[in-house]
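A brief tutorial aside. Many learners find it easier to grasp structure tokens once they have seen a single protein encoded end to end. The record that follows does exactly this for DUF1523 domain-containing protein. Read the sequence first, then the structure, and try to relate runs of similar tokens to stretches of the chain.
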Amino acid sequence: MVYVKWVFILLFWGCLATFLHYTLPQHDIVRITDTYGKRVDPGENSWFWAQPDVGTDGSVANRDVFFIQTRRAGGDVMVYRNEDTGWGWPPYFKFDTSNLQAEASDLRSTAAAPQWAVLTHYGWRNEFYSIFPNAVGIRAVDGPDVTIIPWVNIIILTLLAAFFWAIWVRWRRFRRNRIDPILEDMNDGFEAAGDSFAEKRGRFGRWLNGRRTK
């Protein structure tokens, strides 16, 4: 039973960590190499695409999606999609996809004369399922060694930690005041019943031995 309990605990925290890693904003220092739009037909990976841009026809299965091609400071290539999140999830309330694409296009540069930028995004990149992280913001920086402090993540994780701590403290208090006394009473009742049964069995054994000796 203890192993089952720990399996459920690990699954819960693993799922929560995966959800937060996908949803919370991440910051990449990149050099933009190209920007373009492409017709996309979401299929099995439709969960990892945002809804159509606000104000467009959402009943159409396929749609045009903006993409931003980049190269990181270490030389790795990363491609981002650029879609509105609107009023949906994750709650970035992003409505400025076209403006962001224009800003990204303006920051394009070459390896000979690099212009570095901090690109804020959420989501993952998976080549096998054609999953792309969604860009939600971009700004130019002086170089690839700039320090970025993820204040939003720090605040959200601190609030979540405080929330779970409050729940845990209240659960321990509730268990100590409500559940533990009931369990102790039940345990005392079982022990008393066991002692009574043992005493009656001893009396019956003595009575039976007395009958045999007569």
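Self-check: Residues 175 and 181 are 9 Å apart (CA to CA). If you spotted this yourself, you are ready for the next section.
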